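Batch manifest, entry 17 of 40.
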Amino acid sequence: MSAALPPFPHTEEPFGRTELLQLDTTAHEPDACLRADAARNRARLLDAAARLVAEHGAAGVTMEAVAAAANVGKGTVFRRFGDRTGLLTALLDHSEKKFQAAFLGGPPPLGPGAPPVERLRAFGCAMLRRSAEQLDLQLAAEPSADRRFASPPLRVLHGHVALLLRQAVPDADTELVAHTLMGYLNPVLIHHLTRQCGMPLERLEDGWTDLVDRVTAPACSTSAAPARSTPAAPARSTPAAPAPGINS
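Output type: structure tokens
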């Protein structure tokens, strides 16, 4: 990956002022600036794609199928969204913006106002529930390896986790630890654990909480714990020496 992650702020305020990201990265102009016909086409295409997901699942959403359902040319779909991944990520846009609003400015513990470890616990559990609800769509929208970690939405999520880690464990390599924690929340892993292994979502949430607690536990907690007292071994008896002058 050539795109480096931006430096992370040391307080919540820069994130709070950040405008929520659009997942549809193929469209750089805001909706207010779109031509009226382009805006109508985009809304019609997304409505058609949403119907296809509801009727056939994410696997039934192809550029050709969306064009036919919206009664437009296939080229219109490609111009608007770039490719199938761009179309599917646009469908996730509304959910993503709601989630960002919740952890950037919503009530605690997910939003500001709770200790960082509590916020990390709440963040992961909320992501797990969100992924479980729209797993097929998230799997279908998974970007390729060269785009996955450079996508703006994932960078926001990673940056938020790294920020909370920096507050909780400032001596850790928080950028790398954040990647480790985000790996637990990957939709592909969630699919494997819930659908292929049959694990209930509650077990994944408990596992996330346990992982956060272990990662953020003070490094000195073990050494600072009082040593467990060990009963003294009984003294070994030594045979008494024979009295002088007494033959054995």
